[in-house]
């Protein structure tokens, strides 16, 4: 039987995934109580989410996916889709016409690409082939694609050639995504090669914009990208928890809540 990697999740299922990502392990009975539904309803949700590799099922409970492997790309495109769209448009509103920018990998960043279609005279350097194809249709845009190894799962480009091209530029805005945010401000991701590209983008951008919805907070991932001191503005969908407030203030990171 083919695995369903592109579920259409309802609000309860999206919140369920967020809870499991935040808590690490949750009992089925606890989830049923939280959502005030029958355990059978929760088990149906869990079966769907497990088939899509969004959670891992165990006897009596569920856990978050591995800290060394991200959720399948097709499934990530459906998670928090409305929130990601609002974040993407909030970022795009901060990019003036005539700007230069890096855009790296991730489903939120692909939303940024779509939100930029009404802009003019942009110079975009990207290692995301999906974004490059989308934006190259705009006559006033100049799109430069970083060379390297193409990943079949998401059409991202990584490797030494990618990093070397990025180092040839200094742009106005670097737009990055992330997979996990620790409460001490550490930014985490799953792929070492992708992180090295993002670090090069951070180093060669005058301003760094991070697009990350609230479900990234407290999510485990293995590779450290950096911290909020390297981020000028964080665009998200909900106010960060109180524990992050002093970290963001010390880092001087602006927080934009996409309403």
UniProtKB/TrEMBL annotation:
UniProt cross-references to InterPro entries, sorted A to Z? Carb_Metab_HTH_regulators, DeoR-like_C, DeoR_HTH, NagB/RpiA_transferase-like, Tscrpt_reg_HTH_DeoR_CS, WH-like_DNA-bd_sf, WH_DNA-bd_sf
- Which keywords belong to this entry? DNA-binding, Repressor, Transcription, Transcription regulation
Q: Which Pfam families match?
A: DeoRC, HTH_DeoR
**Domain HTH deoR-type span(s) in chain numbering:** 9-64
The protein's GO terms of the molecular function aspect are:
DNA binding; DNA-binding transcription factor activity
User: Gene3D superfamilies given for it?
Assistant: 4-hydroxybutyrate coenzyme like domains, Winged helix-like DNA-binding domain superfamily/Winged helix DNA-binding domain
Has the keyword Cytoplasm been applied to this entry? no
Q: Supply the name of the protein.
A: DeoR faimly transcriptional regulator
